[in-house]
Amino acid sequence: xxxxxxxxxxxxxxxxxxxxxxxxxxxxxxxxxxxxxxxxxxxxxxxxxxxxxxxxxxxxxxxxxxxxxxxxxxxxxxxxxxxxxxxxxxxxxxxxxxxxxxxxxxxxxxxxxxxxxxxxxxxxxxxxxxxxxxxxxxxxxxxxxxxxxxxxxxxxxxxxxxxxxxxxxxxxxxxxxxxxxxxxxxxxxxxxxxxxxxxxxxxxxxxxxxxxxxxxxxxxxxxxxxxxxxxxxxxxxxxxxxxxxxxxxxxxxxxxxxxxxxxxxxxxxxxxxxxxxxxxxxxxxxxxxxxxxxxxxxxxxxxxxxx
Length: 307
What we know:
- The structure is a single chain.
- The chain contains 13 helices and 4 strands.
- By secondary structure, it is α+β, with helices and mostly antiparallel strands.
- It folds into 2 domains: 2-75, no CATH class; 93-282, Serine Threonine Protein Phosphatase 5, Tetratricopeptide repeat (Alpha Horseshoe), CATH 1.25.40.
- The longest helix is centred in the last third of the chain and has 25 residues, at 258-282.
């Protein structure tokens, strides 16, 4: 009888904390594999009918380890690309200006601000992507990354969130993370679902932009062969990508193939001049009443002249 009471007493001791862990506590610890071969503890908090992660991302149901890995970049090899040549390539002043314009979200700032004029609460992936864009417009890249994280937590297949996060990492000088996030964005739609909840298909134009940007970051990392591969993919989709062609030439130059480099420079300048000529013919100005671009130095010519 005494033995039975002892067993019953021990059972009650073990049962009480078990019950409290489900009914009384709102914090849950998930051990996620990390890059060092161990585990990192991620705290998930209960919030209403869902759960909230450490960076404020909301989950309608308890998150899977794979979701947490996606957001926090833990043990995801493609998020950190090691530079095998150990030789980063500094951009010239002219190149940096062109690249910053390519990556700069300024064209999206007005629409993002307008979107929030009547918004109060961030409730879905779209809201957080727009907020992340506004953060980048204000040069707050750290906060932008947090907002893109939230968007991915809500909807893991939101391509624009990965692209935005890649851009923020680029401006922070973290090229490895930028490459990894561009990689994750390839093949994803801008948003997982439309306003009616229907799936959205990915589009080739979006991927061509990603290949162009990832190629430029590969180039800056000194990964010339990988850069050329990305530029080839982008150009195959969009043959008029003159900056891809220019930087492909730069990559060939670094690999010692100077004839191919010159060929790419000439091709890029030709495309830009044709585009400028079309623009001028469509918008005749007082400074150029005949619609000619004679005497105008193109961006690519400036970059070539700076080498």
